[in-house]
Amino acid sequence: MLPTNSPRKPRKWLRRLLLAAILIPSLTLMSLPWLASTSPVRVFVVSTANQALAPSRLEIGSLRFSWFGNQEMRGVVLRDKQGKALVTVPRLSLHRTLRSLAMENPVGGLLVLEGAAIDIERRADGSIDLVDALDSLLKGDPTKPAPKNPKPKSEKAPPWDSLSVKLVNGSLSVRAPELPEPIKARRFELSAEMPAVKGPVTWRIALANPSEKDDSTLEIAGELDHRAPNSGIPPLTAKVVARQWPWSVNSGGLTMSGRLSGTYSTVRKAERWSFVGDGDVLALKATGAALSGDRLQLDRLGGNYEISETDGAWDVRKLDLVCPLGSIKATAKLAAGSQSVTTKIHGQLDLAALAQQLPHVLHVRDGLSVEKGAARLDIEIADADQGPGRKLVAEARVSDLEARDNGRLIAIRDPASLSAHILQRPDNLKVEQFAVKTAFLDATGAGDLESGVKVSATVDLEGLKNQLRDLIDFGTLDLAGKGRIAFDFRRPEKQRYTGRLAAEFLALRVVGLTTEPIARNAFRLDLGATGPLTDSVIPSAWNLAQLAIKTDDLTASTRLSTATTDGAFQIDELRLALVPLPQNPAPATALDPVRLAVKGRFDPATGTLELRSLPDAMKPEPIAIGEEGLKIIGLKRGGALHMEGTLTGDLARIDRSYAWWSGGAAMDLSGALSLKSGINVAPDGAITASMTFQSPDLSLAGSEGSPRRILAPAVLAMHTQSSPSFDQIEVVNMAMAIRHASIHAKGNLNTKGDRRFVDFAGTLDPNWAILDPLIAKSIEPKAKVRGVARPFKLRGPLTAEGSGSVLQELEAELGFDRFEAIAFGLKVAPTPIVLRWSGGVGTIDPIETTINNGPTILKPSLDVDQAGTVTFRLAPGSEIKGAEINDDVSRSLLAYIAPMLHDATRVTGKASVTVSKADYPINGDESTHSTLIGRVEFQDVNFAPGPFAGELITLTGQKGASGLRLDQPIELAIADGRVNQRGLSIPVGRDAKLEFEGSVGFDQTIAMRAKVPITQGMLGNSAEAKELLEGLKVGLPIGGTLSHPTIDRRGMKVGLRDASKSVLKRGANDLLNNLVKPPRSNSPRTPAPRLR
User: Fold this and answer.
1) 471, 502, 533 - which closes a domain
2) What is 244-312 written as a DSSP string?
3) How far is residue 631 from each of residues 136, 336, 568, measured CA to CA in Å?
4) Rounded to an integer, what distance in angstroms lies between the CA atom of residue 108 and that of residue 112?
């Protein structure tokens, strides 16, 4: 039997391979959403987003992608660079499947933000934190190159599905500088839809604060058709519906709050606008500094308006405002060019209600109650009755004003009224009637452009106060004076006008507006201008103006002309003369007028003012503009200001002028002054300034009979920065130099209340070569001082508080390294000296040095009493040991202790000084005196006597001595301007010495008494007389001065007479003793007493 072949089965591995080829891609595709939702992918997405948002950052808690469901993100937070959470979204979902996003247009769908919290802040500079956080994303990557082949603009973008955004159950917080409290909505919902191809973008925003006490809501809805074919603003519809929505705002010193209700809509259609609104502001409150402490409260401020744009004109069909204080109703049709213009305005004000709400703003007198009063205003502009033109009729009146003051009725029936009737024709302007009538002002006017429109008025300032003082609290304000005002306006040529205003006041007095009262016998003002007229005979500009002012002490005039190229105008001349008013008592010398004469240019567009002195104004004035001129840039409201230029002046006239107007004494300065400055003022008022003062010949008056003290060349340069309120000034650097010294410093000036405080540090560098002659003149011809200055510090108030002294609160430190000095034959070895001042007491670091090679320890200090007297003190323990003595020291200093040293020569030896107490007043009146108590010890001091010492020695009967010696301690005391000593004696022989006691004044007068021994030399060297004269002394008065001492020889004669009596008594006693002497004995005997 033949074998048969059975069919072969498919191999299993091939089936498995085919199955894997199908399943693996399918499973991979199905798992892509799961993979994209994993943490690594989330980290990658966040990192990529943050690279685009930097420095802001995005946080995502989790991702969830689905082929068949919505795409979700959870825990989404957008933070700015400071880490503040701007947008927080707990759950964000896109209602589209992953399949539709991959296979269809990826743009479109419904994006839902659940529970989103948005926190937005607008800063003071106008920037918004949320916009700044998205700034880098909105601008794109600047480092990424632009595409090389961009698509043509005409190529249409692929169509995309409609995009809808919904925010549900969210919250909103908005902050801004002008908002006292953030705008908050606990419930915030938003829906917006952008169609795919055409149709408007629509939106709806709903804000609410649901609670039991607050059911306020605010809804903003609208649509914008940005695809509409037009070149201007696209069609727009916006509608705001508010219900008790709270609001508050802070601006200009005023804080207002209230609740808004009503419906307000804005529509732009067919390139025309229309505005309709009807609503109320409820519970309106206003407070702040602008209301001077008053609090405005209105239950309701209602508003109703309808405004539309038609045929190039604005039609105000209705504009009504009404509140408890009054109402305004207006209708108008405003058109450009020669089209018809009609306007009607009617307003009324309840003065009693206004005074009750704002008594401090109106300065209502305390205790006064305004019970009645009304103000009314009616304005109508319409076409002229006959022919082309317009007429203006204005009527205003304050009437029936009644108030009560503690039961007394105050009534003013017609306090003020105004009436004006003006007719404007195409070729003329006619004032048919103009009248203003009050108790203090009476003005009337009439006329046309051909004959002139003329207005005249009389003013009585005292009448103003008399009429209103029962109602208004004028405070310290006092007014007096009567004046006349005249105005003339005409057309001398076609399309050209001239106008003039003249005013004159006599016996003018204004007190309370300025620090000093304004009182002038006469004040005159004259203002004139010319310029072009428009076709409607209204002035369109000016091209020439003149102003003149004249008072008792001021004469000023200027002439201005416009430039036709850039809108700037020229200041052809500006002259000013300030004449000092007479004073009582009149100063010894009259003060010349202060004059200023300049020309320049002003550009209103840039706010630039340039000034230069006129050629005839270069003579020395207290202050004048230098040759480089003065330039001010930024004279525009709210902008930055820069000023630069030079000023020159005469210091002598500045000094005299300041003394005249301040009432103080002049410092007798002299010299030329130049000032170069650059000043920047920021919009907030902060000031940065750089200034340099120079004077090539600055000098100061010397003492009586002395020449002027030359301080030049003098330079002061500084750079400062001040706060907007000017209460903090930082001196970034300051350098000041005169011929005697220079100072470099920096620091701060701060104001606290009415006091100004300083905190400075720097260095002081004396010019010793210049100071040497001054030191020699004030001390002695050979005096010199040297030293290396240490950095100094100064901190404390510049003005005292109450009756205290500035020195009591001032803190300072000043010192020198290697300080050395030579004066009066003394040489102070280099040593540091540091002065510290705190709490009204000055301390000087203990000084250890040598004076004439003698070790020296000084313990100085400074003290200030309540009268402001500064006293230099030396504490106990201050001493000089073994200072070497020379002729200069003995002649200049030691002669006050030992007058015979004044004319001595070949002085050698040493002296030591010990101080128990030393007080030297640096300032003060004549009642203050120096005081010193101490001890001076002469150590082997040898000297050749001069004529004065020689004469004293001769009186003792000794031969002329070639040398004398001092070696003893002396008690020293200085009081009442005199140097008192006790214990001075000079040996003049083997057993004899001269003794001195008394004082020498600082004026070198001598008041001393010398005890001169009676020696045998006076009696011919008799041996018998020696025993009789032993111990006898004669008192010798010494007077005169150190330069010319005098010896009172009559006093010596009296002393010798007294001494001779003593000698006779002593001789008789010895004779009696000899007569009664007993026989000699070996036993001792008691001697008999001597007779006296």
Assistant:
1) 533
2) EEEEEEEETTEEEEEEEEEEEEEEEETTEEEEEEEEEEEEEEEESGGGTT--EEEEEEEEEEEEEEETT
3) 41, 40, 15
4) 12
Q: Are residue 74 and residue 113 in the same domain, yes or no?
A: yes
What span, in angstroms and rounded, lies between the C-alpha atoms of 620 and 578? 15
- If one counts the domains in the chain, the total is 5
The alpha-helical segments, DSSP class H, found in 856-999 are 887-892, 947-955
Name the helix (H) or strand (E) containing 47.
Answer: helix 39-53
> CA 69: distance to chain centroid?
68
Domain of residue 53 covers: 29-137+160-197
Residue that finishes a domain, picked among 501, 533, 565: 533
**Residue 701 CB-density burial (10 A; 0-12 exposed, 13-18 middle, 19+ buried):** middle
Please name the residue that has the structure tokens 């955004």: 165
H or E element: which one contains 418?
Answer: strand 416-425
At residue 1043, φ and ψ (nearest 5 deg) are -75, -30
Q: What would the pLDDT profile of 1016-1071 be if each residue is shown by its tens digit? A: 555 555 555 555 555 567 778 888 888 888 887 776 666 666 655 555 555 555 54
Q: Tokens 């405003």 belong to which residue?
A: 334
Judge if 129 and 226 occupy the same domain: no
Reference 375, options 343, 414, 427; nearest CA is 414
Q: What is the DSSP letter of 56?
A: S
Q: Is residue 11 part of a domain?
A: no
Instruction: Identify whether the C-beta of residue 943 lies closer than 8 Å to the C-beta of residue 907.
Output: yes
- Tokens for 11, please give them: 């191999």
What is the reported pLDDT for 632? 92
Tell me, yes or no, whether 595 lies in a domain: no
**CA-CA distances (angstroms) from residue 275 to 237, 929, 933?**
10, 90, 98
Q: In this structure, are 183 and 100 located in the same domain?
A: yes
DSSP state of 437: E
| In a shared domain, residues 351 and 291 | no
- Spatial separation of the C-alpha atoms in residues 476 and 471, rounded to whole Å: 15
Residue 151 in any domain: the answer is no
Q: d(Cα 1012, Cα 953) in Å, to the nearest integer?
A: 9
For 256-276, write each residue's pLDDT tens digit. Answer: 999 999 999 999 888 889 999
Query: Cα(944)–Cα(363) distance, rounded to whole angstroms?
Result: 92
Residues whose CB is less than 8 angstroms from the CB of residue 748 and which lie 6 or more positions away in sequence, other chains included: 728, 729, 730, 731, 758, 759, 760
Other beta carbons less than 10 A from residue 551's beta carbon: 19
Positive or negative: CA dihedral 844, 921, 785, 883: negative
- Are residues 53 and 133 both part of a single domain? yes
In a domain, 804, yes or no: no
Could you tell me which of 162, 224, 172, 166 has the C-alpha nearest to residue 191? 166
Query: Measured in Å, how far apart are the chain's first and last C-alpha atoms?
Result: 198
Residues 6+ apart with CB under 8 A from 59: 46, 75, 76, 77, 78, 79
CB atoms within 10 A of CB 413: 8
* Omega before 947 within 30 of 0, i.e. cis: no
Could you read off the pLDDT of 426-466 as tens digits, one per residue? 888 899 999 999 888 999 999 998 899 999 999 998 888 88
- Note whether 353 and 394 are same-domain residues: yes
**In terms of Cα–Cα distance, which of 675, 672, 744 is closest to 712?**
672
Residue 674 corresponds to which amino acid?
S
DSSP secondary structure code for residue 1082 in this structure: S
Is there a single domain that holds both residue 66 and residue 190? yes
363: region left, alpha or beta (phi > 0 left; psi from -120 to 50 alpha): left
CB 624 within 8 A of CB 613: yes
- Asked if residue 405 and residue 461 are part of one domain, the reply reads no
pTM over 0.70: no
Alpha-carbon distance 518 to 1031, whole Å?
88
